[in-house]
């Protein structure tokens, strides 16, 4: 999947599409998902043009990597989900059902989330 500079997250970063901002710093932007799947559903994105975690881990600077990891933790704490538990999810590629070609991490919480995948005998 190639980076599309007109994807929705790139447009949000450029200010072309509004978002309900939760947190912003030098390297990241976090905002509420427009179609929440849990009481707390926040997206955290790097400000750089990275398609996926594969792309980000290969090309991002150490400061960008640390910034994203710290932002995810900070946003989860700000959202009040750290005590009861929360889920972090990033879909990558076609088999991972990635829909937007810009790295984004979902933070889900505020309720019991259940199993993400069915348990197997393996």
TrEMBL record:
InterPro entries, sorted: Histidine_triad_CS (IPR019808), Histidine_triad_HIT (IPR001310), HIT-like (IPR011146), HIT-like_sf (IPR036265)
Task: Name the catalytic site residues.
Answer: 104 (tele-amp-histidine intermediate)
List the Gene3D superfamilies. Answer: HIT-like
Q: Output the Pfam families linked to this UniProt entry.
A: HIT (PF01230)
Molecular-function GO term, any one: catalytic activity
> Which residue ranges does the UniProt annotation give for the motif Histidine triad motif?
102-106
The cross-references to PROSITE patterns, in alphabetical order and at most eight, read: HIT_1 (PS00892), HIT_2 (PS51084)
Q: Which residues form the HIT domain?
A: 8-118
Q: Which domain of life is it from?
A: Bacteria
For this entry, the protein name equals HIT domain-containing protein
In its UniProt entry, the species of origin is given as Paramagnetospirillum caucaseum
Lineage runs:
Bacteria, Pseudomonadati, Pseudomonadota, Alphaproteobacteria, Rhodospirillales
